[in-house]
Amino acid sequence: MPQARVHVIPTSAPDDVSGLETLIAQGVLDPSRLVAILGKTEGNGCVNDFTRAFSVMALERFLGPHAQGVALVMSGGTEGGLSPHLITFESLDDTGESDAPALAMASHVTRDLDAHEIGTQAQIECVADGVRTAISKAQIRGPDDVAFVQIKCPLLTAERIACALYPTATTDTLKSMGLSRGAAALGVSLALGELDETTANIVQIGVDLNVFSARASTSAGVELMGHEILVLGMSAAWSGPLIIDHAVMSDAIDTAPVASAMSRLGVGTTATLVALLAKAEAAPSGAIRGRRHTMLDDSDISSTRHARGFVGGALAGLTGRTDLFVSGGAEHQGPAGGGPVAVIATKRH
């Protein structure tokens, strides 16, 4: 049976690969077995956040041929006390162990979209096909055993809009990030059976926020035109000590479901927390539990930046850690104002 291995590596800058280099030199990370690398970089997380592309470039340069086929998903924005870091995912050869089911994973890279497809039903279908492919590659029995799907998706720039073959979904580059994240999330929802084909064809992306995936996390960036997809779940075809569960926060301070997921995994008793991935957004209603928030009214700082810092703080208080993969902008990812969370832990022996 294959076995998953996960490392959380602190970084001192977007191009810092020294921690990765050290683990490889120590023989505890095999670059030839990498499936994906997720990263939190200290940029603004908006259209012009080039720390994401900078980090990808540094990783590709360092890994060389080992980077081919590896999903490199960089999420900008470490507001508040969030700590920049990388999370590596490896698929090791059959270990002969029978500690199953266990964490299973696979990545897939979709075709590049044309600019006019971003934020449309075409993107939904493209992502759905990619997620289905990754589920099959991961030997995950079916959608019910998928815990989390992390996706890096494209956005529109002024140049891409100007060169588009057909009219684009928006001419607002910042708004394009939300439309792309939302369409990608709906693609996950379609692949997992949370959304049917009929609804997928009529849903208003970015408007019908009552339609969402409970297990999608999507992040838009300027560094690609396709999608980097990482599917995580539990499978009897995988062995090892790593396990995963998921939760859905109903709002930005709803940490109880996350605590329940940690409890189900035995974190603090029979297991140790390895990594936590979460979505965050400013509640579009302008209020959290009836109390007004000002994240949507700040003309100086994007609401996604406020939300990352706010939710990151809430989850850091729960976990006692700041190296959390908190991604901003949760359109169609969990209920409006909330978001899905994945908890990865390792069983103690």
Structure report:
It is a single chain. This protein has 349 residues and is an alpha+beta fold. It contains eight helices and 14 strands. The chain has helices at residues 18-25, 51-63, 121-137, 158-163, 173-191, 197-202, 256-265, 303-319; strands spanning 3-10, 34-41, 71-76, 85-92, 102-109, 146-154, 216-221, 228-235, 242-249, 271-280, 287-288, 291-292, 325-328, 339-347. Helix 3 (121-137) packs across helix 5. It is globular and about 55 Å long. The mean pLDDT is 96.
Please describe the structure with a list of short key phrases separated by commas or semicolons.
8 helices, globular, 4-stranded mixed β-sheet, single chain, 349 residues, alpha+beta
